[in-house]
Amino acid sequence: MRLALKHADRQSNNKTGLRIGSTLNALATWIDERTGFLAPLKSFFNYPVPKYVHKNLLYSLGGLTLIAILLQVITGLLLSFYYDPSPTEAYNSVDYVTYQLALGWLIRGLHYFNASAIVILITTHLLRTFSFSAYKKPRELTWLSGIFLLLVVLGFAFTGYLLPWDQRGYWATKVGTEIAASAPVIGEWQARLVRGGPELGQATLNRFYITHILLLPGALVLLILFHIYQLRYHGVAPPLTKRGQALANKFVPFFPHWVVIDATLGLILLAFLAFLSWRWPAPLEFPADPSSTDFVPRPEWYFLFLFQLLKYFPGPWEPVAAFLIPLVVIGSMILLPFIDRGTERRPWRKPLTTSIAGLYLVMILALTFLALSTDQQPPPADGFAAAQPQPEAQVVNPEPEIAAGEDDAAAEPEVSAAVAPAENLEVEPEAEAEHEPSLQNTTAQPDDSGAALAMLEVLPPAIPAASPAAQAPVGSKPNTLIAIAVSEATLDSFADFWAQAPRLEVATQGAKAALSGSDQKTGPLVTVQAAYDAVSLVVRLEWPDATASLLKNAWIWSGTRFTKSGNEDQFAMLWPIGNNAEFATKGCAAICHQADDDDKWWMGSESDSVRYDVWQWLAARTNPVRQADDSWWSVQTDPTTPASSRHSDALAGGGYQLNIAEDKRGPAVMHGVNPATPFIFAGEEIAVDPTALQPNQIVPGYILAASVGSRGDISARGVWFEGKWIVVLRRALSTGHEDDAVLTPGKRSPFGLAVWDSKNGINHNITPEVLILEWD
Amino acid sequence: MSENYLPPLDPHKGSWDEESINRRRFLEFGFWTISGVAGLAMGGASLRFLVGDSLKARPGQWVTVGDLAALAPGQVHRVTYSVQITDVWRTVPKNGILYAYSDDGAEYIVLDATCSHLGCNVRWLEQEQRFACPCHNGSFTRAGQVISGPPPQPLSRLQTKIENGFLQALI
Question: In chain B, N or C terminus with fewer CB closer than 10 Å?
């Protein structure tokens, strides 16, 4: 029964297959009767390919080049669906494709790596053609069309390089068009023509884009059609070897015998390019910044020989390298079939042409190698590699200095906090974690000058004997922080994964010194490490600080009146929100705005569309609630108020609140249980009662609560011991809040940092360098 | 076999390699398999790339329709709003028109002005007490119900809330 059914099924399937086959045949006949396409197509696919060609993979280089070009057309077409050819948006559109769009990394990666593959394939195809002397009569025009195809491919490479409008493309094109300008007599004229004006800009981008997607593809199609027609018209050049000649009178059809080889190689190429795109994503530098001075322009690797050649022809000799030598090389390639007209086709019997070609090849390879080897980065200084002191579990007694001065206007975001009910606190401050020091009650001690000083005992009860971070290697790339992937990016400064996260050592200096050079104060050396998981980035910071300053705007009770004093240590990281060309190349100099009057110094941007995300860890105000303050900076809303460029992120509840009475002569509240408690958490406060205070008693300057909402996006834990701060910050890679920077693994993110040591007044230190976050 | 499949070659030139020709079916199968794999891989990737975020739902946003004191009951109020939206990679303003109406000042009907037929903006005709679409003469009541014309469904009625004396609508 079952067999009978199977048989019936098979019969039914056969009938279905026959029906489909006959329908297709009928359709093909119908089309052929009206178009006459079938006969030429059959002739094309049944073309007899000599067996010596079929047996030699070198003959497949041309077909593989065609497949690679087809892939380039497909990926280019796909990319053009999202690309915006304007200097303001080109970068953002490529950034979107690369880091946000589904499979954008793959399509752009294929396009990027395939460009190099095409150059390699077309060059090897040309070398194969040359070595088989396939350029000789009657195939001169096939050779010529091949040379022009090579030039068109290089044209694609040159014009495509600019399109992302990043630093690489911009500066390579700048240099490239300057080379055009160095030509005698017509140089300036032709450079302006290429750029569409005196400068690189919208006109240049339009010209390059249209050339890349319309003019060059048009030329490419015509040349390929001509090239293939010529190949079919003359056939493949006769074999050189006796083995090949023995197979010369046997043929296989073009389809499927030869095509299947090309298809197989094409699939391997596709898989290889996809692997490259996955393993080494197509690079995207920071946005083009015409005012940057530190970017070192380099052309793509296949133009490096020309770049190197220019070094040997300085000044007035430059046109020799820029024009004369390339003209001689290309000219000799064009004229080759008309010069070498002998019948001898074996390269070993034509020493002159073989030697000249060999010389060209060796020169190009040698110049490329020289360019690559002289471009190697110098090894990083190993001065930072000294082992970190091992933390030991012991009691230390830092003396927080109480600095005079009202506030740190340059550092502090607007305070707009409201006190949340105690039960709404997200963090239970009293619950000490394993590694966290406990902050004991304050005991006021008079200092030498008679002012009151607070004495805080910072007890690290369970600090490991050896910090894993101390074993971490120093990063090899200057100013680059490599974030390592971990299964869980915990808020733990002693987590084991810190032993693998490369350390970036950042030298800081006084903020004004860094920008004006007027003050050469040196700040602490900050050690930075980073790790990330699927959700969050965690950054570990460590810097020396002899004193832990933990009292911000604290009140000291003299016995008869309150005086306000004290400050806190701070640390900040700054990230541009969105793509920002200026910050990526200038760092702090892009946001720190000098003024003759010190009070008018301000930090922010000069355009409403340019915004920064600032994570500010505050030892007194946010560390006790295990957070860092989240703020954003932009333009000054009031030019007379320097701080008006800085805004706290949206706050839905909680936050710290200044503890000040209405008459501003003392605190409004004090700790309800023990007035000597160093921090007051929301819900613990009672109205201040001076009769309960001892002379020199300190009343904290803030009522603390964890921030809820965008302002509370950053978790933080800071530990002070052995004369240094160790702080860990953690934030979601993407918070979904528009006042926060989005961090995307794989995408390089520039950032800045600042550290404040509050001993003897505010000491604001920054790094003038642009720091880059990269992902391993 | 080759005679049925391939045209004969000029005997002076040579002949088809019979041994290779006999593998034709296998090679054809190989070609279509390889092409199929490559085509499916590239086709699938291309399709996903092209779809991009176009099918992703946009999160709703609350917009302020107006101060309740200014939204007098018994009248249809035309409100132009502007909100920031993400347009592929850009953040851009999106402008739109809403109509707000209340009988009693307590419950408000807020309608999106986009015609349910083909997306033109409807206008409120005060004298005729109806919304009219200028494109295809669609006509709606004050509550957004279809009176006449091609619109297949009522105007979109938006979710509302009142906060601090301001009427807000979810667009």
Answer: N
- Residue B6 neighbours by CB distance under 10 Å: 17
Are B84 and A738 inside 8 Å of each other by CB? yes
CB A508 within 8 A of CB A488: no
- Is B52's CB within 8 Å of A93's CB? no
Residue A389 predicted with pLDDT over 70:
no
ipTM for the predicted complex: 0.90
Residues of B with Cβ-Cβ distance to A250 under 8 angstroms: 14-17
A603-612 pLDDT tens trace:
888 888 899 9
Instruction: Tell me which residue has tokens 């042409």.
Output: A353
- Whether B41 and B83 map to the same domain: the answer is no
CA distance A494 to A466: 9
In a domain, B92, yes or no: yes
Domain count, chain B: 2
Among A260, A331, A282, A363, which Cα is nearest to A116's? Answer: A282
> What SS3 class is residue B75?
coil
Report CA Rg, chain B.
31
Contacts of B19 (CB under 8 A, 6+ apart): none
Element (H, E) at A152: helix A140-162
Residue of B nearest to A72 (CA): B42
Adjacent-strand bridge partners of B6: none
E-state strands within chain B? 15-16, 62-67, 76-87, 90-102, 108-112, 123-125, 130-132, 139-140, 146-148, 160-163, 166-170
**A603 in helix, strand or coil?**
strand
pLDDT digits (tens, 9 = 90+) for A318-346: 889 989 999 999 999 999 999 998 888 88
Q: Read out DSSP for A217-260?
A: HHHHHHHHHHHHHHHHHH-SPPPSSHHHHHTTTEEEEIIIIIHH
Q: What is the pTM of this model?
A: 0.81
Helices (H) and strands (E) in chain B, counts: 3, 11
Domain that holds residue B41: 2-51
Residue B135 domain flag: yes
- Together in a domain, B32 and B99: no
Return the CATH number of the domain spanning residue range A396-407+414-669+703-775. 2.60.40.1190
B163 class by beta-carbon count within 10 Å (0-12 exposed, 13-18 middle, 19+ buried): exposed
Could you tell me if B76 and B150 lie in one domain?
Answer: yes
What's the distance, Cα to Cα, between the start and end of chain B in Å? 70
Same domain, residue pair B71 and B46 = no
Nearest to B14 among A78, A250, A263 (CB): A250
C-beta atoms of B88 and A107 within 8 A: no
Enumerate the CATH 2.60.40.1190 domain ranges in chain A, comma separated. 396-407+414-669+703-775
How near does any CA of chain A get to the CA of B16, in Å? 5
CATH code at position B100: 2.102.10.10
CA-based Rg of chain A, rounded to a whole angstrom? 35
pLDDT, one tens digit per residue, over A303-321 is 999 989 999 998 888 889 9
Q: CA-CA distance, B169 to B14, in Å (whole number)? A: 82
Whole-number Å distance between alpha carbons of B42 and B49: 10
